[in-house]
Design goal:
Blueprint (H helix, E strand, L loop, with lengths): L7 H14 L6 E12 L5 E6 L4 E6 L1 H4 L11 E11 L4 E11 L3 H16 L17 E6 L4 H13 L4 E6 L7 H14 L4 E6 L13 H9 L4 E5 L7 H5 L2 E2 L3 H8 L3 H34 L2 H4 L1 H87 L1 H6 L4 E4 L2 E2 L11 E6 L2 E6 L14
Parallel strand pairs: 3-5, 6-7, 6-8, 8-9, 9-10
Antiparallel strand pairs: 1-2, 1-4, 2-3, 4-5, 11-12, 11-13, 13-14
Length: 449
């Protein structure tokens, strides 16, 4: 059999790897009915999702399950979001669920996910866009509906924690028809009052009640706001797109008021501590200065001010005496210099005359020696010139001899010659070109002259 044989494990792992590499099913929304639901003591949920024709095993781990507000049961119609993979031990395809939505709210959640993804890609929720919250706000704008528990909670919290801040309320409906435009207008008006921070709050509710805070127009308006915004929309489990774009999200309206302000009691305690610290340091400096002042008061110069002037007077008198002594010494040295200068001038004249006589004698001797040396060397040069002239080849040529060359090489034997060979013959008064017609060798290898 030519085809390769797989183990079961290898085949299951290959299918698992292939499914997990397929990006289109790694975040997929599936609608169906829950059956065989089991909530394990570990917090994990195991169930089957089915429709009229098929069924699929599902697993929802404890971390994701804890975020589902209502415990599901068999027969519930839901929309789940998760990824597809294979459970190796059972060789079974499974959905690993990250989010579960009751079917009735599925359209809203799907719309919310699409809008969230779009705004995320635009960078609206980036942390780099977040503005810092001022530590000690002087004015706080609150955007919410009047006569609501949320507004009362924020008001009472601000008065308790930071009553010195100016509270500016901008009324707006927080749900239902017209609430979107009212919230955007309230946000624009709040910016015109130039508060230090803006609180956008409301009480809890269903996803339909909170939907205005998921609208794209409101999210974009909040992103363009130049003043930091703190949201406190609903309860801790309620999260809207407004919370993502806000500079700071609080779990409740009360939490938003607390995040916007310091506690005046904490500030008073800190100021008291700092005041004590500075008071202690100032008292320490004052005591050090007092001790220094007491030391100065007991100083001998302060007890007797003229003592200092007397000491300076004594010092000045001593210095004057020393100066007079030095002045006398300078006069004495100056006189010595004058005397030495006179002696030096007289001595210099005698010395110059003596050295001039010696120099004249030396010059005469040098001239004599040079004359003798030149004459002696001139005789030697003449003798050497005569010797060189007697040994010069030109002198030999002048006696009738000649020098023979072939191709610029000196010919010293007839063995270097051949008949017809051209030669160059140098005489004392010139050069002759010739050709050999006959060669005769003399006895004993010597040519007869």
């Amino acid at each position: 059999m030519s085809q390769s044989i797989w183990t079961v494990t290898a085949l299951v792992r290959f299918i698992k790897k292939y499914l997990e590499a397929e990006s289109s099913i790694q975040s997929v929304a599936v609608q169906g009915e829950i059956s065989n639901f089991t909530a394990h003591r570990s917090g994990h949920w195991y169930f089957t999702l089915k429709d009229n024709s098929s069924r699929c095993s599902c697993v929802m781990f404890a971390q994701a399950a804890s975020k589902v507000s209502v415990m599901p049961k068999d027969g519930d119609q839901v929309i789940v979001v998760g990824s597809v993979s294979v459970f190796e031990a059972g060789g079974q395809m499974q959905l690993y669920i990250s989010k579960m939505i009751p079917q009735g709210l599925g359209a809203l959640y799907a719309k919310l996910e699409v809008l969230k993804k779009k705004l995320t890609e635009l960078g609206i929720f980036d942390e780099s866009r977040k503005k810092p919250i001022p530590m000690f706000p002087e004015s706080i704008a609150v955007i919410t509906s009047r006569n609501t528990a949320a507004f009362q909670d924020v008001t009472s919290t601000l008065k308790r924690r930071w009553p010195m801040a100016k509270l500016i309320h901008f009324h707006s409906a927080v749900q239902g028809e017209g609430s979107l435009d009212q919230l955007i207008n309230a946000l624009k008006e709040a910016q015109l009052s130039h508060p230090d921070v803006i609180l956008m709050v409301r009480g809890g509710g269903s996803i339909e009640d909170l939907w205005t805070f998921n609208e794209e127009a409101l999210v974009l308006a909040m992103a363009q706001c130049k003043i930091p915004i703190i949201t406190g929309v609903g309860h801790q489990s309620d999260v809207t797109l407004a919370d993502f774009v806000a500079d700071l999200r609080a779990p409740t309206p009360t939490g938003a008021a607390e995040m916007a302000t310091p506690d005046q009691l904490d500030v008073v305690n800190q100021l008291t501590m700092v005041s004590r610290l500075f008071t202690g340091k100032i008292n320490k400096i004052i005591n050090e200065r007092k001790n220094r002042l007491n030391q100065l008061k007991s100083h001998r110069y302060l007890l007797d001010p003229f003592r200092l002037t007397n000491e300076y007077q004594l010092s000045l008198t001593y210095m004057t005496q020393q100066l007079d002594k030095q002045q006398l010494r300078v006069i004495r040295i100056r006189n010595q210099v004058i005397e030495l200068r006179s002696l030096l001038v007289g001595h210099s004249k005698d010395s110059v005359y003596h050295h001039h006589s010696e120099l004249s004698q030396l010059f005469t001797q040098l001239k004599h020696h040079l004359t003798y040396h030149f004459k002696s060397n001139d005789d030697k040069i003449k003798l050497r010139r005569q010797l060189l002239e007697s040994l010069s080849p030109m002198a030999i040529l002048n006696r009738g001899y000649a020098i023979t060359y072939h191709d610029a090489k000196l010919v010293t034997s007839i063995r270097q010659l051949s008949v017809g060979q051209p030669l160059t013959v140098r005489y004392a008064d010139g050069i002759a070109e010739t050709t050999i017609t006959q060669i005769k060798e003399s006895d004993h290898g010597k040519t007869n002259l």
